[in-house]
Amino acid sequence: MTPDQWVALFAGVVGGALRVGVPFLFVSLGECLTEKSGRINLGLEGVLVLSAMSAFGGAYLSGSPWTGVLAGAMAGGLLAALHGALCSLPRVNDVATGIALMLLGTGLAFYFGKPLIQPQAPQIPAIALGFWSDSPVIRSALQVNMLLPVGLALALLMWWGLKYTRYGLLVRMAGDSANAARALGYRVGGIRLVATTLGGMIAGLGGASLTLFYPGSWNEGISSGQGLIAVALVIFARWSPLRCIGAAALFGGAGAIGPALQSAGISWGYHLISTVPYMLTLLILVLTCKPGSVALGSPGELSSTR
Question: Could you tell me which residue, 165 or 236, shows the higher pLDDT?
Answer without folding.
Answer: 165
